[in-house]
Structure formats: structure tokens, C-alpha cells
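To close the chapter, one final illustration. This time we ask the reader to focus less on the individual chains and more on the assembly as a whole: which components sit near each other, and how the overall shape emerges from the parts.
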Amino acid sequence: MADILKGRLSTSILDTEVTEDGVRSFIRGCQSWPFYGIAVDLISIRLAREVLEGTEIKVMTVASYPLGGTRRAVKRSEVDYAIREGADEIDACLNYFELKSGHLGRVEEEIAELVETCADKIKLILIPQFAVLTNDEKEGVCQAMLKRGAHNLKTNTGYGYTTVVDDVTFIKRRYGDEMSVEVSGGIRTRADAEEVIRAGACLVHTSTPFEVLARTADRAVRKGGTL
Amino acid sequence: MTRTELAALIDHTFLRLQGSETDIARVCCEAARYQFASVAILPTAIPFARCVLKGTSVKVDAALSFFRGRYPLQLKLREVEDAIDAGAQELDLVMSVNLLKERQLDALALEFASFVRTAGGLTTKIILETALLTDEEKVLACELARDAGASFVKTSTGLMEGATTHDVSLMRRTVGPGVGVKAAGGIRDLSQALQLIEAGATRLGTSAGVSIIEAMEGG
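The assembled structure is written out below.
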């Protein structure tokens, strides 16, 4: 049977203290498996491109990650930088302060600016951080995204929050193929990853991919709950 | 030390991603009531906090490159400029720990000097993230920060293991009396706060400022 995780798993190397050599050896170590992509910080995009040249693996990067605390103009500068350095995709955290303060209109404005900045130069994935949102906020942000032409969503940053299968179902049931869904955080076993893919996620992110691939038993992600 | 003196050393900290205007307003009101030095917040909340704190002596302190510090220099400086435009009065920048690990000391010295220059006289604090450093690396970073003219060296972001008296006294010995030392991360009670001050801290970053002050006698 074909492995449904092939091309649907991504990983990252984003630790505060990691050096260029550390990034290089991590990426080299990942080339033995058909990952969809590898996420690095803005400072390592060029290096990742060099190491991954000639492979199908995409160079991914992040903006305002993982706290969503940078202001709009700075976030746009992050995206511009990622485009100049040649990243294929960028995961951008939304402005959680505005979102949690009920200023959905301002969040929507920012989404529109990001969509415009990215255009066809880089694939934009937005992170609304479902773990801290009410259902109304989740719906509001999804609708704002679709209205402004942003069709790729990652439910959580993965930092400090775990994946909930219900979040994937929540989006897929309402928006179907209009919204592609990625997940990150708390994926510990192969069964976890397969479950969210079956629920409709197009991509599963894990910082410990080989442990996940090796662990076949013990499903850790549960319906509606956390680990 | 009196309650007022202790309060004046505290950066009242709120850096949770899910914080709303309600949370920031509460933090600002507490800071004004207890006369803390500042509120330490994410850049997205700067204008709102400035607005709430209008007419008080409490400063708005922005956490920049937060919390991993992995930005190219031009973006770090862009964020500093933007935070100042938004109304930040003190600036806490996470240093590029990766550069220190690679022993790119010239690049790190440039980062610190550019930060201080861009800050244009505002209070600058360079966050080391001591949990990830050897003692030798802590000393190197402190020497560079001191030479660059930073106002403070700061132990931690608070998202990893926090301040220890060992680190604070090592940092104090390295920078001498002319530079501030800010202890941050895991400061939960009065005795811990007083120990860090005894070790040489001149500022404390904590979200427990209210209970720390309330625990002090002679209000």
C-alpha cells in the first residue's frame, strides 16, 4: 500500500541557538525521505535553497512566528525579505492581539495586504491559532481569508499547542476544497499524522519527523481533545 | 528597600499571544496603580498600551525579535524603528544567539551597536537567553553589549528557563556598574526578587509584580 504521508509531511529547524552548520546537517538528514518541505527562519532561506537544490523538497519560512506579535509593516517586510531570498512558501501568524480584541476588520485588512504582497511570488499560508479562538472567531477569520483570496490555512503554530482533529473537520465541513488546511503541533505518531490527513488536512508538520514515522502505534491525537 | 523602590524596578510583563485589549488594559492599570517602571508587551499592543497609560509615568516596553531572535539585521532594525514609531519607550531585543554560537562576534557587535544607534537614546535591553549559553558565552555577550553602549543586559525571554542569581552576578561582574542588568523569567515571589536584586539586578521582568509587591510589608 502506498504511504499516504509521502509528500504530505513537512518539518522545520527553527531553534533559537541553531547554527548554519546545524541547519545544514538537519536538512541533509531529511533528504532521505520525500518530505513536502522544510521550514527555516528568514536568515537560513539561502542556505536551505543551496542544500535542497535539485530536490523536490520546498523551502518554507515563517513570519511573525510563533507569537504573532509583529506589527503589519514589519510583517510585510518579513514577507518581502522571504520573497527576495527565494523561499517557496511562508507561514504567517495573524495579529492575535487584534483578533482577540474583536477587530476582525483590521485583521482582514492585514490579510488583504499579505495576499497582495505575496501575489504569485510566494505561497502564503496563514495561521489563525485555532487553539485560542472561539468558534465565532474561527469562522470570522476563515471568512475574512476567503473573501480576501487567502485559501491556505494552518490551524496552529505548533508551538505550545497541539493539533485537534476537530479543527480540520470544522473547516472542511464548512468550506470544503475552498480552504486547504495544514496542521502543526502535537503530532507524535504515524497514526496521528494519518488521522488528520484522512480528516482532510493536506499537510502535516512535525519537528521530529523520523520519530513520528517510526512510531506506528499509540495514537496520541484524539478527537476534540489534546494530548 | 521600600515597596515604591521595588515597584520602580519592575517591568510588568504580558507577552501571551492570546492577549486582548482587556488583558493589556488590566496590565496597564496595575502598572499605573503600583507605579511599575513599565509594561513589557508585544509590538502589536504598543499603541493601545500607550493610550491607556497616557498621563502616567509608566513606560511602554516592547519585546522585539521575540522570542527567538532569528532575524537578519535589517529586519531587526526595521522592527526597532517601527516600535518607536508606534510609541515604544523602552526596547528589549532578543540577540542573535546563533551568531554567538558561531562566534561571529563582529556581526554580533554590529547588531548591538546598530540597535543602540537606531534606538536613538531610548532605553535598550539586550536579551541573552542565558539558558542556552555557556558562562563563557554569557561573558562574551555582556562585553559586546557594554561596549556597544546598551542600557541593560537581560537574562531571558521568559519562554525558556529563567533568571538565576548565578547568571545575574556573572553579568553584573562583567558589565560593571555602568550598565543595568535585567533579570527575567520565572520570577514568582518576593524572596526570589530580592535575591536577584542582591545578586546585581537593577530591573526585574515578571508577570507576578502585583503579588510580589503585595507580599512586601510596610505598604
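Residues 220-227 of chain A have pLDDT under 50 and may be disordered. Residues 13 and 23 of chain A are 7 Å apart (CA to CA). With these observations in hand, you are ready for the problems at the end of the chapter.
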